[in-house]
């Protein structure tokens, strides 16, 4: 990450929105000052007022923050609401005929769905779920392509108080099985397949493979037919979506749930063990997704909002399935890859559907930048008025390209820092109210007490001195616990500084203006193309292969993906001659693909007789990182048990 630090340390440019943008913005500098003042004066009251203003409560709350069980916090926990009601029903009288979802499939098929239609579809499917035996509190796994039915399924769960857990369609059968078993889900909702990258991803086949391995809790599998590929249906268990909705009523009374009722569980990688199930609430989660749509995305009634994230990630929850609908916006969903049929696809979609707000990951920006300016220049991008990024630090070069070539120097860029655990944006620009700097996610949002501390938990005030990113006060959309492993929740996020601060796991510095610059993770979590992957997870997958004895995985900087996966492997057999065995490398890569998913396949695999360990037996990860980067080894290697393996690890012998 040192290259990122160097390049961003020298970054002094600042950019402000045009006066036209500022005039029309929901939040200008004056309004922002009012928000900040209110939050500073009364943190809880601030969030209480917003919750009254932005959420339709079935039973109003009186309680604000409840810290009795710290570090477990709850918000508004005597209030009742329904998230789907807030996303759909409450818009019907004013926006019933407004388009809620514009969908474009990878093959080019498009659909427009109005709020009334979406409401009807969600009610019908919610009734179908009930009819299949789903009750409040039951877990439902959603393993679907990026199609409107994925959002319908999520909203339908929310409507009946079922807890969904969406599994990214790119995850393997093995990963799906782990998540089904961890949640003890009753129902799996999937599709025959999804169109992605010019081919079809066989989701039902993967679901079958997962179910064959166990998953005893699953009673029913609902299969949406998207690609019309052949699927095997197990009698009594599997039912097609269209058959499940047959004859279902078009209205469905929302299940009014407590504000703290879990809305969903979403798995994310950590530094140890299997991915953890991040559990979110209903009211608090909904509130932050709404206010950030307004503050950061400046969402307005005539916008066409496009967040390119898959619903399998948190970004696809907060800024596809919930935030846009809760704010009555028109949003676009796109099923496919950015490069199908060519690297102009995103820009064509922006042009064809007159997208006004576009939100994507730096990795996509870098990949499309590499493809050349002819692609974006072939399309009319004049509808765009605001651009956003998320998932990893954006290098100033990519930021400038995004600004010039896509935004034509007139669109502010919002670089949004947040996490699966935070539920919504935490540190991000408010575009009509403040200047941005390429590579910085700028300032914490009102009511978000983000700061930097040193190893002892002392606040770092000195500019440009790095430290741990912490949040000092609870906020409504914070993670509630790790599903089934509360101990892990407490250890991972709170134990470091005696339950005083939420610890994000990121390294960060503040510049002279107080702007935050994220410098990478502090733990063994990689960020590959904006996706979190635990090195331990990949190591366990490798070691599960019969020919592998030991493995160590580190990241190395990658031009497009941010980080690439570098694996050092010790075999149970003789090390291949000169350390090369392409056949085996291919096999191990696809093995990891089967164990986790294609995104976890190592980019490089290097074979050695041993791993570098200290005399006390600890793997010297720092050394492995230096080697993976191809840098000169400057650190002391005298404690190495077997110095001779350095040549092997470096690929020199
Ligand atoms: C990283 C994605 C720099 C960070 C919403 C964080 C970022 C992890 C940014 C969370 C950003 C996210 N700048 N780094 N704007 N946004 N990250 O849970 O390391 O998939 O901790 O949530 O991504 O990843 P997650």
Please supply descriptive tags for the structure shown above:
binds 5'-O-[(S)-ethoxy(hydroxy)phosphoryl]adenosine, 653 residues, single chain, 22% strand, globular, 32% helix, Rossmann fold, 2 domains
Task: Give a verbal description of the structure.
The structure is a single chain. This protein has 653 residues and is α/β, with parallel strands linked by helices. The chain has 2 domains: 16-337 and 416-508, 3-Layer(aba) Sandwich (Rossmann fold), CATH 3.40.50.12780; 529-649, ANL, C-terminal domain (GMP Synthetase, Chain A, domain 3). It is built from 22 helices and 30 strands. A 7-stranded mixed beta sheet has the order 5-4-17-16-18-19-20, sandwiched between helices. Strands 7-6-8-11-12 form a 5-stranded parallel beta sheet, sandwiched between helices. It has a 4-stranded antiparallel beta sheet with strand order 21-22-24-25. Strand 6, helix 8 (148-160) and strand 7 form a beta-alpha-beta unit. The protein is globular, with a radius of gyration of 24 Å. The two termini are 28 Å apart. The structure holds 5'-O-[(S)-ethoxy(hydroxy)phosphoryl]adenosine (WTA).
Low-confidence runs? none
Largest sheet: 7 strands, mixed
CATH topology of the largest domain: Rossmann fold
CATH class of the largest domain equals: Alpha Beta
Query: How many beta strands in the DSSP annotation?
Result: 30
Radius of gyration: 24 Å
Mean pLDDT: 95
Backbone structural class: alpha/beta
Please name the CATH architecture of the largest domain: 3-Layer(aba) Sandwich
What hetero molecules are in the model? 5'-O-[(S)-ethoxy(hydroxy)phosphoryl]adenosine
How many structural domains does the protein architecture include? 2
